[in-house]
Structures are given as structure tokens and as C-alpha cells.
Amino acid sequence: MKNKIFQPDRPGSKNISWCPGCGDFGIRAVLMEVMEDMGFTPSNSAIISGIGQAGKMPHYINANGFHTLHGRAIPIAVGVKASNPELNVIVVGGDGDMYSEGMEHFVHGIRRNANVTVFIHNNQVYALTKGQASPTSMIGMKTAMQPSGVFEEPINPIALAISLDASFVARTFIGHKKETKEIMAQALEHKGFSMVDIFQPCVTFNKINTYEWYKNKTSFLIDHDPCSKTLAFERALETDPYNLGVFYKKDKPIFEEMLEGYQNTKVPLFKRNVDTEKVKAFIVDTY
């Protein structure tokens, strides 16, 4: 990194609690590089997260941040973007946080198409709570809570997002730093709801989906047209190997530009003066 402007200098911020070898370290490093390369600054960026190991990201990057409730990062991010469209709003969360506790917000976040970028750390296990199966855990995987092995069908987040017509859908593996950086940059440049599912090993609680496993079981899309929804969906269903790259992208109206409050002015909500008399009148008329 050139200036390391996103390296936090807060007391205790360097004591990162991730396990040595965790894929979150790589995601953090690449994200800071991309943000700096794109001209982002700590003051014009906001990182919103839920609960989980990935949810600790706002503590480890020097930018505006909000560590929210489990699964609630996306609606908070949509509200932040609506209040201040000038901010570069980034959402981070794990596969459990986004695809289980936050599934309803993931679905409706896609519908609203706010101009936010969602990076999902997918290690196919609940790591913060010591290794329970997550929505993306593979059938047969044994954990302390599933000693006989997982039997539920894992969620296919890429196929789900494409079926809902998300405006940017991609997947990568943090073991491929260069490609991950390129995909992250494309997601951040895209105008609309961008989701990137990032394979990242949990070296402590998932002994199946290791760095070697992901390298052997994944492959980047070749000669793929991301503008074709049908083709994108077909490629999302392929799991031998799992495809990486940009599956689908589409230009669509974005949430904050459709809001009535921005039809006649582009002044962000937080910069507007509040007419307290109207607020009082509204309260009186309502109650």
C-alpha cells in the first residue's frame, strides 16, 4: 500500500483477534489496497458489519464504521447511503450473518438496489461460535453440533442473487489476490447493489474447505457474458468446479435516487435544516 491511510492507529486496533492463517486477513489487506487505489479516504468511506469474525472488520480499518446486530448490516448500510449518498458504503459479513440471520435483508437489499457493495466472507462454517454448520456448509461435514454430518442442502448464494436480478453478482477466492482485487474494484465501481461472495478458509474449525481445497475445486469463468441472466444462472449451478468471477451485472435504477426526498434536490439528508415546528405538528397530528 502506498500511504497506508486505512491502517488504523487507534489504541488496541492492531491486536487483531483472527486466528493466524484466517482468510479474513487477506480480505482486509486487499480491501484496503483497493480503497486506496480508487481514491477512497477514511472520511468518505463507511464500513458496516454484522456479527461474526468478518463483522470485526470495521475495528481493523481506519474509516467510518458501524458494527451492527447479527444479520442487520444491509439495512443499516442502505440507511447510511440514503442519508449521505456521497459516502462509499461497504458491507461486510460472513456466510452465517448474511445467509441465515440476515437472509431477509439480503433478499430485500437486492430488491431495493441501493448503491452499496456487499463483501461476504464465506468460510462455510460459523467460526465465531466455534464451528457449527452454516447455510453454506457441505452435506456430510461433521461439526461439534452435527456429529453425524450435515444433511441440509447448502444455499447457493450466487444462484439466489441472480434469480432475484441483483445488479452485480460475483465470487472469488482470497487465495487469488490479484483476481480478488480486480473483482472488488469492479464491485465498488458498479452503481447499484453489488455482492461478492468470497471463499476464505477457516483454518481452525473447517478442516475440509482449506486453501488447497479451494484452489483445487474452483476455476475462473472463461468466455462468459455477464449480461446474460440465463447463462449466469447456469454457471452459478455448476459446482465441479465452483466458478469464480463476475457472473452477472445489470444497470438498474438505484434506491436512493428513487426516493422522493431527492427528486428536487441532491443535498444529502444530513446537511438539511430540520423544521422543528413541522416535526412538532406531525407528532401532535399523529398522536
Q: If strands are numbered along the chain, what order do they take across the biggest sheet?
A: 2-1-3-4-6-5-8-7
State which percent range the strand residues make up.
15-25%
Helix content: 25-40%
Poorly predicted tracts of residues:
none
CATH architecture: 3-Layer(aba) Sandwich
- Total of domains: 1
Number of helices: 10
The total strand number stands at 8
Q: What is the CATH first-level class name?
A: Alpha Beta
What is the assigned CATH homologous superfamily? Thiamin diphosphate (ThDP)-binding fold, Pyr/PP domains
Structural class by SSE content: alpha/beta
Describe the structure.
By secondary structure, the chain is α/β, with parallel strands linked by helices. It has ten helices and eight strands. The chain has helices spanning about 25-35, 75-85, 95-100, 105-110, 155-165, 175-190, 210-215, 230-235, 255-260, 275-285; strands at about 45-50, 65, 90-95, 115-120, 170-175, 195-200, 220, 240-250. Strand 7 (about 220), helix 8 and strand 8 form a beta-alpha-beta unit. About 45% of the residues are buried. The mean pLDDT is about 95.
